[in-house]
Amino acid sequence: MNHQNLALSLLNWYDENAREMPWRIGPQARAAGARPEPYRIWLSEVMLQQTTVAAVKTYFERFTHLWPTISDLAAAPDEQVMGEWAGLGYYARARNLLKCARIVAQDFGGEFPRDRKTLLSLPGIGPYTAASVAAIAFDLPETVVDGNVERVMSRLHDVHEPMPLSKPLLTDLARQTTPKNRPGDYAQAIMDLGATICTPKSPKCTICPWLDPCLAYKNATVTQLPKKVPKAVKPTRYGFAYVAQSTSGAWILERRPDKGLLGGMLGWPGSEWSVAPENTPPFEGEWAQQGNIKHTFTHFHLILTVVTTKTAIAPPSPYLTLSANEFQASDLPTVMRKVFDSAQIHFTDTRVA
DNA sequence: AATCCGGGGGC
DNA sequence: GCCCCAGGATT
User: Fold this and answer.
1) How far is the CA of A184 from the C1' of C9 (A)?
2) Which has the least CB within 10 A, A116, A271, A276, A303?
3) What pLDDT was estimated at residue A96?
4) Could you tell me which residues come within 8 angstroms of residue A199 by beta carbon, excluding any fewer than 6 positions away?
5) Which intervals hold domain HhH-GPD (predicted)?
6) Same domain membership, residue A214 and residue A246
7) pLDDT for A2-50, tens place per residue?
């Protein structure tokens, strides 16, 4: 089957099976002349980086409700955007999202550039997102290559070279299959195929529109692909987290540095995270060691010992003193919310006792 | 090219 | 527990 017929059979499948998403213009609506808003496509694609559709939906609705246009988002305070992003992970995305919004609002008159090269120059937009915005928002014949496409291509062509070594080959194979007609629908179609049919486990080959040309199916290697190089074991680090509540009920927090782990997010003061951290509270007080919380990041496990105190003094900068009304646990990244939940129990216990 | 960066759902 | 996910920035 040649590349043109491959694309056509996938588009025919997509016409009947396209999933509905809050940011998507489905194939029927698009055929009737509807066009997606580039702002919504960009926002959704950034949120969808390494994140599932189900997890993104509520965040997308919330963001577009608060900020209907990119100029609205560009005018938003950093702290509010970081707070709204809390829980979604990969917080550099939120910082770059704001940078990008402000560049588009100020330098591009609020209109997204259409060509892939210019899109690539914007913060937080890499090869995948540049191609997806160009293809989906502007229907330009660009090739999207994400984890779905890599898996589909590795199986369609029975590629046994492991990722990421095989990425250039899979990208080239994907490019050869991208049609000049309806490239935006095609991009969404191949990702839908990977998400619903050509899944990592238990792929639904019997109902796949590409069953006939699939070489991995022919060779019975579908579930072995894509192959990957073995990954390193995650080390475990330890640390202390210090939760202080003033006698007025306010909480003592800090804003984390813009770069690095949980960059730009709100958090509790803490020790170094290492094999043998020192218990060094941020200021004088009767600190009481409570229980531990566990959390796993991309590349290490973390065990934090929660240490709490009551304080009558507001500690100086850089610490932030947030009143009970100002403080919202939902503004915290998940590991810091675990610390808070653990400390809450102990504060409650000491009050009762 | 390798490393760093979250969190949730499936199994 | 491990794997995966509509990846990008940094070094």
Assistant:
1) 27
2) A276
3) 97
4) none
5) 47-196
6) no
7) 777 999 999 999 999 999 999 999 999 999 999 999 999 999 999 999 9
Residue A198 burial (C-beta neighbours within 10 Å; 0-12, 13-18, 19+): buried
Question: Which nucleotide is at minimal CA–C1' distance from A333?
Answer: B6
CB of A153 closer than 8 Å to CB of A216: no
In this structure, what token pair is assigned to residue A204?
């639904």
Which nucleotides on chain B have any atom < 7 A from a protein Cβ? 2-9, 11
A244: exposed, middle or buried (Cβ count in 10 Å: 0-12, 13-18, 19+): buried
Q: How far is the CA of A104 from the C1' of C3 (A)?
A: 37
Residue where one domain finishes, among candidates A168, A190, A224: A224
Q: Which nucleotide is nearest to A168 (CA to C1')?
A: B1
Are A32 and A7 in the same domain?
yes
Let me know if A20 is a catalytic residue.
no
- Do A240 and A143 share a structural domain? no
> Domain check: are A15 and A126 in the same one?
yes
pLDDT at A115: 93
- The closest nt to A47, taking CA to C1', is C6
**Number of structural domains found in chain A:** 2
Q: Could you tell me if A207 and A267 lie in one domain?
A: no
